[in-house]
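EI: anyone free to look at a 292-residue chain?
SC: sure, send it
EI:
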Amino acid sequence: KALIGRNGESSRLIALLYAEGKWAAHLRYGAQPESELPVRHIVVIGDSIKVFGALPSDQIVSEIFQRQLTAFGAPFTSIMQSLRFAVVGVGGTGSPIANLLVRSGDGEVILIDEDRLERTNLNRVVGTRAGDVGKHKAKILEQYIKEMALPTNVTSIVGLIDIDTPALSALSTADIVFGCTDDYLGRDILNASVYYYLNALIDVGLGGRVGEDRNGIIRLLNQKGRISRILPEEGKCLYCQRELRSEWLSRQLEIRANPNISELELHEKYLAGGKEQAPGVAPFTGTVANIA
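SC: here you go
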């Protein structure tokens, strides 16, 4: 009542209790202070991830996940059903990751991507068909997941997390974020979100080298995948791993401001290019997504 008197009926009060090694919580709204609402779950993220309060598995398990119960144990599906995941970038690695999350019993997933599907993307973006060319990747994948009819709530946001407020706000609501973008400015935001929003971040990268082989054929000579798991109190950040550098961000900002800028002008500004890009094809992107 004191809170309502000071801050109005829009106030919310969260009560947390720690007892016998477990967390519990409930919520009260100022408009109905006598009503007590349970929270969906409590996630404690430090040097590990612990989930408290997820629904008992016997209340949500369907025949679809029977094999999964045998593989991972009964609590796994209840925790997956309670968690909210965000996938930033739903191309060659992000789309199979989202697909696997849903098929693993994820309760909520947010898909964030600004790009539209090009014909050259059809060889690696899960859930796409020739008729989808020109549509936004996030919207295509949202529809694909809905048609699975699995117990997952899916939302798509068309935008960039370093520019568009809805995309950035979505990060703050997620328990676990998969970073699947090759956009350095976006990756910089993901790196910061671990500490601002107490996310768990699983960041995925793919690179390689194209050149001439011993037969004189130009092709992919090697392919490298990277998976970085970063928690607020465990794991090196992307700068520490040398996956981000300030000059790469400055270069991208310059190109965004002046799309016609030349490589010579960028070089004169001491804005070196980022890591070498390589062709992404389904056997490689899918393998890295599976491991992630």
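EI: DSSP finds ten helices and eleven strands in the chain.
SC: 👍
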